[in-house]
Amino acid sequence: MIETMIRMFEIFTSHLEILTPLFCGLFAIYAIWYFTSAKHYAPLTLQEVKLLWKIHKKDAQCRARKWRKICHKDRIVGFKCECGYKHLHKKPIV
Ligand SMILES: [Zn+2]
């Protein structure tokens, strides 16, 4: 039993130079997929955007007085603050 386990471990370690790039490659593909296709814009209401802007102002100690809506297909998906801060509300599709 132990001998088989050692044997399996030997096989595994001898193939490590093949397996490591394989796992790295798979992880890279997954990461790219996750950051590109898996997200879509989540619509926000005007109240939510205003609230998020207030939170940003408090967090970043931002003194800007203006902000503008970021729209995507007639829906508010975020805002851009006068200071340059941009917030986009996205959520991943599960
Ligand atoms: Zn700001």
Mean pLDDT: 87
Work out the helix count. Answer: 3
Structural class: alpha+beta
Q: Biggest β-sheet: count, sense, barrel?
A: 3 strands, antiparallel
**Oligomer status:** single chain
Largest beta sheet: strand ordering: 2-3-4
Number of strands: 5
Distance between the termini: 42 Å
What ligands can be seen in this structure? zinc ion
Percent of residues in beta strands? 15-25%
N to C succession of SSEs: HHEHEEEE
Outline type: elongated
What are the low-pLDDT stretches, counting only 5+ consecutive residues below 50?
none
Radius of gyration over C-alpha positions, nearest whole angstrom = 24 Å
Question: How helical, in percent, are the residues?
Answer: 40-55%
List the helices and strands and how they pair.
Layout: H1 2-14, H2 16-36, E1 39-41, H3 46-60, E2 67-72, E3 75-81, E4 86-88, E5 90-92
Antiparallel strand pairs: 1-5, 2-3, 3-4
The structure holds zinc ion.
Write a concise synopsis of the structure shown.
The chain is α+β, with helices and mostly antiparallel strands.
Explain what this protein looks like in three dimensions:
The model has no long low-confidence stretch (mean pLDDT 87). The protein has helices spanning 2-14, 16-36, 46-60; strands at residues 39-41, 67-72, 75-81, 86-88, 90-92. Strand 2 (67-72) and strand 3 form a beta hairpin. The protein has three helices and five strands; from the N terminus they run H-H-E-H-E-E-E-E. Helix content is 52%, strand content 23%. It is α+β, with helices and mostly antiparallel strands and 94 residues long.
